[in-house]
Amino acid sequence: APAAVVPPVKEPAISAIAGTTLTKGDSKTPVKVARNSKLKLTAPEGQTIYYTTDGSTPTVDSKKYTGEILITGNMTIKMITDKDDTVITIEYRVENAKYSLKSNAGEVKYMTAPANGLFRPNTAISRYETIAALAPLLDMEEVNVGNLFNDVTAEHQALTAFFASAGIIEGYPDGGFGGTKGLTRAEFSKIMTAVLNLDVTAAGVTKQSDIKGHWSEKYVNALSKAGYVQGFPDGTFKPGAPITRAQAVVLINRIAGTKQLNVTTVRFKDLPASHWAYKDIMSAVK
Fold it and tell me: What domain range includes position 188?
């Protein structure tokens, strides 16, 4: 008897890589991806992809795919090509990029010193410096996410994009990140509660007189409850005051459980061994 003819299996016309997840053809169930994942679509050679993200059926008058799309929120993408009008539908659900404090965080030297021989302990820590210090302490999910801020330089893009996808940082209403801006004690507290995944839904006990009713109250209270922050001797927290590089290191050390080294050498002209945070800084600096 002649061999039965098997009809060739038709390859899905379009495959999609969102972040690190490949989907060929329709998605039967929603595909979970990190927020701001880059979406790259490919069709057979010589074919043009048209797509919609508003649930409507795509036609050759729909948006033409010309380069990666960022998945900034839950999105259903419907696609066709100019040679194949079979609609391919993929539903994406975004979630925060995952991270956790490394189990050996206490042994990691995470703080970068400027190249000029000074540590600048009393200068406000900038937003870029903060994420650069936190990154070595975290296990971060492998993601491929895009940067949405309009003022981030190339060298800071990958890290800023991850921290934004993870929900640890956010930008300003003007679309900027303000990486060189100093952080206030309130802003730093908010970032630290995110790093620790602390529950900030409960108001908690307000111990410092000047954070009652302040937007940072729940974040400071969560850190107080976990034993990481106290206020100043006069019972205030000074939420709007800048947080210095020295103060930031002391707080990060508490959170990471940094091993206190017994050091006496003076490495920085502006950090004598008598400085109140000398030991903390020398235990954390790379």
Answer: 99-284
Count the alpha carbons within 13 Å of 26 in the hemisphere toward its beta carbon: 6
Pair 137, 205: CB distance under 8 Å? no
Q: What digits encode the pLDDT tens for the residues 110-144?
A: 999 888 889 999 999 999 999 999 999 999 999 99
3-state secondary structure of 195: helix
Instruction: At 59, list the tokens.
Output: 């036609």
Model pTM score: 0.89
3, pLDDT greater than 80: no
Judge if 55 and 188 occupy the same domain. Answer: no
Which of 61, 95, 129 is the last residue in one of the domains?
Answer: 95
- 253 contacts 284 by C-beta, under 8 angstroms: yes
- The residue whose two tokens read 């053809």 is 25
Residues 25 and 7: their CA atoms lie apart, in Å, by 19
Both 278 and 136 in a single domain?
yes
Q: How far is CA 148 from the centre of its chain?
A: 12
